[in-house]
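User: Hey, quick favor. My workstation is busy. Could you predict this chain's structure for me?
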Amino acid sequence: MFIAVIILLIVILGIAVIFIPKNVKNKEGFVKINISGAEINAEIADERGEIERGLMYQESMGEKEGMLFIFDKEKETNFWMKNTLIPLDIIFLDENKEIVNIAENAVPCKTEECALYPSQFPVKYAIEVNAGFVDKKGIKLGEKAEF
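Assistant: No problem, here it is.
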């Protein structure tokens, strides 16, 4: 009887692991970012699948939440809003964490052809936050982020 209970628990645990969403990270998958006194609690996207998925299908985000994209090397990149449900501001940073471009109010896209939001310069990082965050917090080109 005891062995049957143990086996049942192992099976239940195995099934639970299979159905846990893969995009849920523990606290170590987040970083605090400060730009011009504005704080952001950002989920980290540093693996290819995480970077490609970004904030797709996310229905809402807290006022001080966002996502930090970390690229393996500094490069020019494009963001798009395919299957993204909320409008976003995208802050592009070089390897020194200096803001080199900002795309404000990137709109959700549910069609096959979506607008591209280019970094315009080589970047090592990008931060996505709710649309209006950049304007509300007075974030400007040339400022540095701390994280």
